[in-house]
Amino acid sequence: MPAQLRELERDIIPLRAVDSVGLAALRGLLAPHSTEISNVKVEASRFDHRKLSELVAELAKGERGLIMVMGKGGVGKTTVAAAIALGLVQSGKSVHLSTTDPAAHLAVTLNGEVPGLSVGRIDPKVETRKYVDKIVAAKSPGMTQAEKDLLIEDLRSPCTEEVAVFHAFSHVVSQAGSSFVVLDTAPTGHSLLLMDATGAYHRQMLREFEGKASGRIVTPLMRLQDAAYTKIILVALPEATPVSQAVALQDDLRRARIEPFAWVVNKSLLATTTRDPLLLARLESERKQIERVKAQASGEVFMVPWTASPPVGVAAIKALLDA
């Protein structure tokens, strides 16, 4: 911890045996000591689960396609996306791994290069600058300096960044026509804005080409709705709030006629062989959330166990595949 933070007063809240949901649990956070496990009968229980390697095997049956890893911030999308990409490379596929997440943790998570895997990023600032330069170069010939300045000022609108990122996203989507593209998306809110832009573009194209060649138009939204082309992987943690957020995201996708291919439950204690009394006491609440996921998910559910250390680096991420 940096010295500046060590000097500040701080409260430390221990991991509890139950989820911090509900008034009783929230009040329990104020108690100096946790007593939840005193009356819990602690039993180790076997829990069979489908591994991440099995999901990769399903995806690898194709020769190409777009795999979008989606979910709320902090659920481990980047780690899951990296593991899927590495698994596909191990299956002999050529893979491009990219991200639309402004936090862009891909390089840190992988911490190394892998033959057959290229890594990229849709950087909003970079894409906006490229888009503005392209528009100015196309429109500025014959303009006075005052007109050019006005054009540049107009392109400083927040809408310009949305358009620029959408164009970059569309390019990534089109790449999946010839190879595998694994896309680590931004947290849900940003991703849904991108989906909205994709839908708006789709409707505009249909209006412009109505009665002409509309039957031959293939928009990015059509690619996302094509289950043979795009596979959506929803990632959640086995806790009440993350599961509820993932269910809401699934509902939003379905309204856009996009059906998730699979769910990945990350950081699962049930998928480990823990014998720690505190962690075992949490298993029952986690089991309830897993049952919620299985009841809500239209596709298969795969699980990634909690690891003793953060899965950073190629070797650690590969280990998650068969964990």
Task: Explain what this protein looks like in three dimensions.
It is built from 13 helices and seven strands. With 323 residues, the chain is an alpha/beta fold. It has a seven-stranded parallel beta sheet with strand order 3-2-4-1-5-6-7, sandwiched between helices. The model has no long low-confidence stretch (mean pLDDT 82).
Fill in the keyword field for this structure.
7-stranded parallel sheet; 47% helix; 12% strand
**What integer is the average pLDDT?**
82
From the structure provided, what is the oligomeric state, counting identical versus distinct chains? Answer: single chain
Shape: globular
Cα-atom radius of gyration: 23 Å
Unreliable spans are none
Strand order of the largest sheet: 3-2-4-1-5-6-7
Distance between the termini: 31 Å
Secondary-structure-based class equals alpha/beta
Report the strand count. 7
What is the count of helical runs?
13
* Beta-strand residue fraction: 5-15%
Helix coverage percent: 40-55%
SSE string, helix = H, strand = E? HHHEHEHEHHHEHHEHEHEH
- Biggest sheet details: 7 strands, parallel
SSE layout and pairing:
Elements: H1 3-6, H2 23-28, H3 52-59, E1 65-70, H4 77-90, E2 95-99, H5 106-110, E3 117-119, H6 124-139, H7 145-154, H8 158-175, E4 180-184, H9 188-208, H10 220-225, E5 230-236, H11 240-255, E6 262-268, H12 277-296, E7 300-305, H13 314-321
Parallel strand pairs: 1-4, 1-5, 2-3, 2-4, 5-6, 6-7
